[in-house]
TrEMBL record:
Pfam families: Radical_SAM. This is Molybdenum cofactor synthesis protein 1. Pathway: Cofactor biosynthesis; molybdopterin biosynthesis. It comes from the Eukaryota. It comes from Ilyodon furcidens (goldbreast splitfin). The lineage of its organism: Eukaryota, Metazoa, Chordata, Craniata, Vertebrata.
Amino acid sequence: MAAGTFICCSLRSARRLFARCHNRGVQRMFSSATHQENEIELRDPTLTTANFQSRTRLERLTGENVVPFSAFLTDSFGRRHNYLRISLTEKCNLRCQYCMPEEGVTLTPRGQLLSTSEVLTLARLFVREGVDKIRLTGGEPLIRPDVLDIIAELKKLEGLKTVAVTTNGMNLSKLLPKLRETGLDLINISLDSLVSAKFEFIVRRKGFHKVMESIDKAVELGYNPVKINCVVMRGLNEDELLDFVQFTEKKPVEVRFIEYMPFDGNKWNFKKMVSYQEMLDQIRQQWPNLERLEAGPADTAKWVTGKLVPISSSL
């Protein structure tokens, strides 16, 4: 199963997807059973709702009639999409230059956003289809008031192996003990500079110390590795590539260098983009023995490692 393959479930499109999946729910009661297989089960007088639900996922997926991975989540190249990203909010407490304009963006009306129950229903439907990793994103997911409740409920889903969060780290430190208690498995923290003034110039807000405190707190609570996302932009932070690699020597963190990508309102310019190959060439000048690690057929990241620590670069 390709570990790097994922689906992104955005706030704007999720309701249409929810309606489509929900309407098919009677025909597809579990995982990826075919319509014919479900019809057989539905006609079985010995299979009541109670004893159907009491059957474990393992029992349903083993035996003579092994249920294949969901055709719904398998693309035309045969890649199995087992990784779901759910955007909990469009709101963010930063205004990163590579992400949105300084004045912010027009927000979707509250009534059109996913409710807590809709988030959990969507997650449940996808897990039944074979998704085993869910990442909560935003905006900034940790400013959503019910984020702890959502994580706690996700952890109850049978078959879901990993719940992760991508955050800017501004509110993370104070929430980390409760996040750990609810069972959050993985944390990705955005950090685009190791220089306080430059960080605040890029994100257009103060708070560098809060992000660094969150990284330290995550390490203290046993998250290993803590993953760092760094968007590299020419003229801003491309001179810090080696500093970020050295940062991984000091703390149990992995750094994922991300190419600057065009978004509405972020004034993208090709001249500002530092390519994956250019990043790799610069790092190899200091660490020439880097080797590329084996990746899945649909991974979006190119993992490399040397004598020091793993590094990840993403297109």
